[in-house]
Amino acid sequence: MIDHVGIGVRDYAAGKAFYEQALVPLGMSLVMEVGEAAAGFGKDGKPTFWLEKLRTPVTEVHVAFLAKDRATVDAFHAAGLEAGGKDNGAPGVRATYHPNYYGAYVLDPDGNNIEAVCHSPAA
């Protein structure tokens, strides 16, 4: 089980603004900030996903956030695009993974592949 993960960003302000909007449908928000060097996003006061200004920026990282249902995956995708992300896979079933794998992908400002996924069958 992973406690938290952190990724470096080229533009801290742009990354923070993107995630502040894109993660809302998943029930996540900015829960901790260390000056203007690190932003921790999570739920219930626990940061689980960090953006780090002082860490070397990376690209092509893939992070998948668990969504409670398919509507949340759809909302994540829309919020990510509205936040300035680029579409990297519209919401839909990815039967290659398993019959109930419903995911959507958005590229963040650094080009990282950010996903929301639901493993439950359609309601």
SSE class: alpha/beta
Estimate what percentage of residues fall within beta strands: 35-45%
Largest sheet: 4 strands, mixed
Task: Give the rounded overall mean pLDDT.
Answer: 96
> What strand order characterises the main sheet?
1-4-3-2
Quaternary class:
single chain
Characterise the protein shown here.
- There is one protein chain.
- With 123 residues, the chain is an alpha/beta fold.
- The two termini are 28 Å apart.
- It contains two helices and eight strands.
- The model has no long low-confidence stretch (mean pLDDT 96).
- It has a single domain, classed as 2,3-Dihydroxybiphenyl 1,2-Dioxygenase, domain 1 (Roll).
- The protein has helices spanning 12-22, 70-82, and strands spanning 5-8, 29-34, 38-43, 46-52, 62-66, 86-93, 102-107, 113-118.
- Strands 1-4-3-2 form a four-stranded mixed β-sheet, with helices on one face. Strands 5-8-7-6 form a four-stranded mixed β-sheet, with helices on one face.
Keywords:
4-stranded mixed beta sheet; globular; 2,3-Dihydroxybiphenyl 1,2-Dioxygenase, domain 1; alpha/beta; 123 residues
Please sum up the structure shown:
The chain is of the alpha/beta class and 123 residues long. The chain has one domain (5-118): Roll (2,3-Dihydroxybiphenyl 1,2-Dioxygenase, domain 1).
Protein topology:
Elements: E1 5-8, H1 12-22, E2 29-34, E3 38-43, E4 46-52, E5 62-66, H2 70-82, E6 86-93, E7 102-107, E8 113-118
Parallel strand pairs: 1-4, 5-8
Antiparallel strand pairs: 2-3, 3-4, 6-7, 7-8
Helix pairs in contact: 1-2
